[in-house]
Amino acid sequence: MGLHKPIYGDLIKRDKTMAQHDTLWINGTLSIITEKGVPETLEAGAIACKDGLISLVSPMQNLTDSPKKLADNVVDLHGKCLTPGLIDCHSHLVFGGNRAEEFNLRLQGHSYEQIAKQGGGIMSTVNHTRAATEQQLEHEARKRLALLVSDGVTSIEIKSGYGLTLDDEAKMLRVARRLGESTPVTVTTTFLGAHALPPEYANNRSGYIDLVCNDMLPKLYEEGLIDAVDAFCESVAFSTDEVEHVFRAATKLGLPVKLHAEQLSDSGGAALAARYSALSADHLEYLSESGVRAMAASGSVAVLLPGAFYMLRETQKPPVQLLRDHHVPIALATDINPGSSPVLSARLMMVLGCQEFDLTPEEALRGMTINAAKALGKSDSIGSLEIGKAADLTIWDVQQPSELAYWLGGNKAESVIKAGNCIYQRPENLDL
Ligand code: NIG
Ligand code: FE
Fold first, then answer.
1. Distance between CA atoms of 47 and 21, rounded to whole angstroms?
2. Do residues 274 and 365 share a domain?
3. What is the mean pLDDT of residues 354-378?
4. Which ligand is nearest to the CA of 113?
5. Which end of the chain is more exposed for a tag (fewer CB within 10 A), N or C?
């Protein structure tokens, strides 16, 4: 995989005719289908795309003509699974340096909070990110993105939050935008200025919140760099009052909000987010029943992040059964970041979601597809196999969708299709 021209290309050679569909995949196990009254998984199914959109989803037996007559290209899946491309709805993909040293410290018994208090943690990454050039940040983030794509991802949300000055936050967001423009992956950007209090404002918390609300946010928005606004609501970060200032400023600009909430304690962040009709509240290990009710009422998605839970050896699990009981949609994401979640595989989050949070494999797959799309406000266009949605598809080297939440590691994505074009093809196995 080259670094500058990584894995992206158009491997499906189109020989355009007047066929009804551009490409038709036949004999697949298709999941997740969200059409009402239809099972979520279709065995012996066919799916096609035209001009980048899904143009047909059908049982093989209902095809109206021979596959070759229906489409310019026909691909036989031989029973393999085909799902929507995975959607990583919570990531900190752009950052400088890494924190492997801190991981070693944690292995020796130092806690995440202790390390943060000694100037490590998020601030260590802030220092590396500020010191890095835009090109360096882009180069490293692009390599990580290529790994996620090779594991089935076709859309990703990328947060800022390691700059904490106008210029450095802008630098991160420009990198995220450029990744969206220069790769086939759909990128949405989230401004996370209220991620940590920078040392320059150690004695002036309200001054920093003012800077975020009255300077950074409007300017970055004006430059077209922000799709949503996030904050870290926690005793070690920002209070609900402080976050509310940020949410008010975002709402004034018409920007949707989301929140890192209830990760280390029950701070009431999810209920606050719900009051601002947040797209999602994320982490949620310490979420209370009243927080769940508030989220249910606002329609916010619960984004669970099993990578951070696992790497921090957290023992408090998010209240999955309550979320189910109150019909709060559950999504999963990598939370890829150099501190709490150095995760380079989205599918692995499906395995950990089942193993650690007792999700079912079906819930895990919905969590990385349709519910992740909801967490980005994009469920009209991506996240399920439905006619008219983007033909963002991943073909897996498995026969049952539940295997996606079972194999621990390995390259199970065989082909990744974005808007009808193949952007990744797994190399042939070595001939051993
Ligand atoms: O989502 N919780 C806050 N922010 C990140 C961690 C960032 C870091 O440790 O660098 C998270 O886990
Ligand atoms: Fe995060």
1. 10
2. yes
3. 98
4. 1
5. C
Ligand 1: which of 232, 305, 343 to mutate, judged by most atoms within 8 Å of the beta carbon? 232
Query: 369 and 281 in one domain?
Result: yes
Q: Which residue's alpha carbon is at the smallest distance from atom 1 of ligand 1?
A: 335
User: Do 370 and 403 reside in the same domain of the chain?
Assistant: no
Angstrom distance (rounded) from CA 281 to CA 288: 13
The single-letter DSSP state of residue 60 is G
CA of 97 to the centre of ligand 1 (A): 15
Token pair in block for residue 351: 């395995």
**pLDDT at residue number 129:** 98
Question: In this structure, are 70 and 204 located in the same domain?
Answer: no
Residue 165 has pLDDT above 80, yes or no: yes
pTM for the whole structure: 0.95
| pLDDT tier for residue 16 given thresholds of 50, 70 and 90 | low
List the Cα angle 342/247/173 in 5-degree steps. 45
Distance 167 CA to ligand 2 centre (A): 21
Instruction: Indicate the top mutation candidate among 123, 197, 335 to test ligand 1's pocket, ranked by most ligand atoms within 8 A of CB.
Output: 335
Same domain, 339 and 392: no
Name the closest ligand to CA 190: 2
- Asked if 195 and 220 sit in the same domain, the reply is yes
Q: How far is the CA of 202 from the centre of ligand 1 (A)?
A: 19
The atom of ligand 1 lying closest to the CA of 260 is 2
DSSP state of 241: H
391 and 270 within one domain: no
Tens digits of per-residue pLDDT, 58-85? 999 999 999 999 999 999 999 999 999 9
Among protein residues, the one whose CA lies closest to atom 3 of ligand 1 = 232
Judged by DSSP in three states, 13 sits in coil
Q: Is residue 431 part of a domain?
A: no
Q: Which domain CATH number covers 172?
A: 3.20.20.140
Count CB atoms within 10 A of the CB of residue 101. 12
Q: Is residue 259 part of a domain?
A: yes
Tens-digit pLDDT profile for residues 244-272: 999 999 999 999 999 999 999 999 999 99
